[in-house]
Amino acid sequence: MADLVIISSSIVRPVINSQLGRTKIHLTPFDLTHLQYDYPQRGLLFPKPDPDFHLISRLKTSLSLALETYFPFAGRLVKVENPEDNSVSFFIDCDGSGARFLHAEAKSVSVSDFLQPDGSVPSFIQHFFPADDIKSSDGVSEPLLALQVTEVKDGVFIGFCYNHMVADGASMWSFFHTWSKICSSGSGSDHQPLILKGWFLDGIDYPIHILVSETERPQPRRELSPVAVTKDRVFHFTKKNISDLKAKANTELGSSELKISSVQAVSAHMWRSIIKHGGLSREKQTHCKVAVDLRQRLNPPLGKECFGNMAYLSSAIATVEELLDRGLGWAALQINKVVKSQTNENCKTFAADWIKNVKNLKLGVGGRVAGDTIVIASSPRFEVYNNDFGWGKPIAARAGPGNSISGKLVFFPGIDEGSIDVQATLWSDVLVNLLADVEFVEYVTTV
Ligand SMILES: *[C@@H]1O[C@H](CO)[C@@H](O)[C@H](O)[C@H]1NC(C)=O
Known about the structure:
Blueprint: E1 5-12, E2 24-26, H1 29-32, E3 41-47, H2 55-69, E4 76-82, E5 87-93, E6 99-106, H3 111-114, E7 145-152, E8 155-162, H4 169-185, E9 210-211, H5 221-224, E10 230-237, H6 239-252, H7 262-276, E11 285-293, E12 311-319, H8 320-340, H9 344-356, E13 373-377, E14 396-399, E15 408-413, E16 420-427, H10 428-435, H11 438-441
Parallel strand pairs: 6-7, 11-13, 13-15
Antiparallel strand pairs: 1-6, 2-5, 3-8, 3-14, 4-5, 5-9, 7-8, 10-16, 11-12, 15-16
Bound molecules: 2-acetamido-2-deoxy-beta-D-glucopyranose.
Keywords: Transferase
InterPro entries: CAT-like_dom_sf, Sec_Metabolite_Acyltrans
């Protein structure tokens, strides 16, 4: 939107770059698979605070305190050259360099412009996120966390992006929650020190060596597909819609002890419906990539609150024919199986194999323009509406344009308990057909 003005840009550092000094965080294969991914972009829409709330100064002061605890976000990525084998290695240096903080204003935009009644996402939203086209590997010079606070006519949008090698969604939202609590209480002293995940891969030496050629920056997204137009849409699944889908999936599978979860049922519904309209031949293989949190899957398990990136994208695979002919329950079962297969043993085998043959990093998420993949990011378990900075709870959650391929689905909890919002990025023609498909729309409600 033409009238968005950046009023200021600054770097916010932790007040005290504390006791932990220059902690080095070494990167696992699970982190390094994200090397060429865009920084994920997320944001929350809020009502407008009172003018005497002193929005910007309070947000910056509390951010500085929050970064004392969440010091990895204030660090930088460091690249080390290994001339002996023409490779490079990376680690995170928690050097207190700081996070970027932008203050912007878009006077002609109001809250209702964000919340279209049919769930469509206005294209101006891309300007409400702080960085465009930054990849994890850019963290050598770019902050690992950037935030943009945009004041609109009757609200505030806090957009942010972060380096996925530093944190996954679970850790990012726990940071965000701490920040909001410090801001609303005005005090930064009453929270736990951060627990880092540490190196949990016995028998694998760090730093991992990556061939220089794999770390070259891929071509910009736009040049890959100059004509393709994707659109974003938010689909709302009510508690009833979700329990109906879940019951349908579980009934189709019969009375075995297998339990399809709500997220798996919704994911399977999206996967089948999008592929149905993708124009692919029936024998074509399709992928449904789901982010699995590995913390509790390792042995010994890592604490749920342990900070870092422990999300691993694993892929359920089915041909178009199988997806369409075998039903919702079958598709949900493929997702259920791939999640279950992330055992301690499989994680460690994956890591050991990965370092022996580091390749295909350059594909990033954006490599697949074929329309045969859906990627499920974020989770309805992240409590996005639980972040009150002191002037009111969020009204809506949205994702930004990073890592956009047709088939990117970002899951958020809906504002009503037990509901789910799915922000889908799809080719325009796929979206048109999807909206006309009664079997799809019967389970969704546009907000
Ligand atoms: C989806 O939820 C809405 C609102 O609860 C409801 O009206 C609609 O019938 C639901 N669809 C199905 C298939 O249950």
